[in-house]
Amino acid sequence: MNARTKWTASDIGDLTGKVAIVTGANSGLGYETSRAMLAAGAHVVMTMRTAEKATAAATALLEELGEVSLETMLLDLADLESIRRFSDNFHANHSQLDLLINNAGIMMTDAHLTVDGFEAQLGTNHLGHFALTGRLLDLITATPGARVVSLSSVAHRWEPMEFGNLMFQNGSYTPRAAYGRSKLANLLFAYELQRRFEAAGADAISVAAHPGTAGTGLADHLFDRWYLRPLKKLVFLGIQTPRQGARTSLRAATDPTVTGGEYFGPSGRKEHRGAPVPVESSPASHSETDAGKLWIESERLTSVNYESLRTPTK
């Protein structure tokens, strides 16, 4: 398939027999990613933080799609205990995991901490998914051809890693910087996971994607002040719908030509919109030194160790 081909959900193919997890699936990109994979025949486990959101999303999809293989489970990526419970429950009911879509996230929030005391954006967007992937690793590596898809953003270019101040503990926090760092962490993780899959000889791949600019509701809180609300329509004028934004995740997850370590984004100017194609991430995202440091720190902070994946030879 040519990299510039206008890939769409109709190119997904038959996913019957595949088991997928999509985090943050109640709305936006996660909802649309789940919708497309359900329509293609996959059994999709949609994760949400509340039962109310789970019921609403499942009801809407079942009304639209009819008889599909849909399951909802509660998961809060800002809570390591919630991640452990989710993993235990998933293991109790499933013996395979073909697709893990690490989609959920928060964006440019005011400073606050997760349940476990982590800066919330890094804690949710990176550490939560690091812990989740690690706890599901046995099923991923036992499922032939499994894929882990990590969602990043053009914002990964905004802020470097600073391991002595990883969570802005020196008081330098800004919502923009913290979001950018969390998205850089997503890519460092995705590329390091691929290196470790290769070193271990695992029949699994790690890939990454970003949606460009899409009206998902992720940034709605930025317009909470009354005097900013009139700007919201202008800011989001002409941007992609969530269904369009989800195409990069879907291609990364399902295109048979995808290879481990690839990164997908929109084909248009500055990768804001367009067909899903392979794109380049920043030089910082390819730093094996930073990836190794982040991996060690992530294992320490989450107490989740990827024991079956040895450290790649540098």
From TrEMBL:
Quote the Gene3D superfamilies the UniProt record gives: NAD(P)-binding Rossmann-like Domain
| Keywords, comma-separated and alphabetical | Oxidoreductase
Spans annotated as Disordered: 256-293
Q: What is a single molecular function from GO for this protein?
A: oxidoreductase activity
| Signal peptide extent | none
Q: Which Pfam families match?
A: adh_short
- PANTHER family noted in UniProt: PHOSPHATIDYLINOSITOL-GLYCAN BIOSYNTHESIS CLASS F PROTEIN, PHOSPHATIDYLINOSITOL-GLYCAN BIOSYNTHESIS CLASS F PROTEIN-RELATED
Put simply, this protein is called NAD(P)-dependent dehydrogenase (Short-subunit alcohol dehydrogenase family)
This protein's species is: Rhodoglobus vestalii
Taxonomy of origin reads: Bacteria, Bacillati, Actinomycetota, Actinomycetes, Micrococcales
